[in-house]
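User: Show me an example of a complex going from sequences to structure tokens.

Assistant: Sure. Here are the input components:
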Amino acid sequence: MRILSPFIAVLALIAVALAAAQVAGGQALVGIILPYLAFALFLGGFAYRVLHWAKSPVPFRIPTTCGQANSLPWIKQNKIDCPSTKLGVIARMILEVFLFRSLFRNTKAEIHEGPKLVYGSSKFLWLFALLFHYCFLVIVLRHMRLFMDPVPGFVAALEFGDGFMQIGAPVFYQTDAIFLGALAFLFLRRVVLPNIRYISLPADYFPLLLIFGIGLTGILMRYVFRADVVAIKQLTHGLATFTPAILAGQISPIFFIHVFLVCALLIYFPFSKLMHMAGVFMSPTRNMINNSRMVRHINPWNDPNIKPHSYASYEDEFREFMVGADIPVEKELPAQPAAE
Amino acid sequence: MYGKGRIIPALILFLGLVTSPMWYKSGDAGKMPKPEKPKDYTECVAPTQYMRTSHMVLLNEWRDDILREGGPRIGKTANGTEYVRSLQNGCMKCHSDKKKFCDDCHNYASVKPYCWDCHLQPKEAM
């Protein structure tokens, strides 16, 4: 089953990390060598994918037109969904990147008695995707407290806002719960809806399960199994300043599972669908101005030596053969002097 | 390559942001917080490693037990020494300097406990 293999893969990653955390050498491997390797692969892979995409020519305008195009002056144009100016594209991209506008248009298809196929608006995917992405962003930024010293003010502000409800000690972060809840929705959506399950692949389940594992181990480390955060910062801050050191016996195994899964995500990232992080900016269907009727776009790899060949000149060139083959021509052959 | 003028600067900006902890003017990583230990006492209410990871949980347990369950004020360490289960009268009796003990690690790990929203801070810190 397509859901089983990614599930087993994540469990296997956890098992490997747990085994490695039992010995000092394994701790150095998971805590120092692997993070550097994963981060380098992430940066290199990310740049490679972006530059590879940048090599693809997009000679013609192919924006998705989601509204009325620029037309006659009395027809109202949809300036954001079918932009004909740079400003319109910028507005479209901002709404796409920050608010997932295209997901907002998500529809659902249902079969009712009859049988009757019914389409309807479905905002839940948009809502939970938005919650998931923003919580992930906040969580990543909060982690900067472990990599920077002194801790920047915006990180402290995020921590304060996130733990605003002051529940328990250590204080409970709202994003932790929303993050796992949104992930659970995105996962269950693929499992429960038969038409979505039909098109879901291991590459869809694996990142969801992996990120869920990361979130869960992080939450367990903070609230249940408890780890020595000073010893952890000593290691993580050491990683950021290239002087890593592991305080033997002070960091609990759950930390190494967490780090191992994060490294797996970093390595997996550039070679998977997660590259939509960069891809959203590079989608020609979103970031192009729809001005095909105002500006002439010339294919950049056209050979300049090949001149335009109009039909009239084509006929001039091949008229004899065309007449010989009984193909109608616009201009007849010049009258031949009658022989004999 | 197409769209160089926008893609290359954007890529450099992204890589710069992602690696920011590495070039951020970070302090010396070897500089560990060294909370000042009390001179007159050698034993805490629980083992050091437990106190390192879970002292905040212990404080919450004390609060719930004493205020909500009517639990005892007095606790006993593993060696039988009696202590007061209280932040101000228990913990701070030995660890009397908040700045040198509590804040040292809390600042390092960017933890802002809300103990002192209600509890009076020790005088020297005020």
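The lines above are the inputs; the final block is the predicted structure for all two components together. The first strand of chain A starts at residue 107 and ends at 112.
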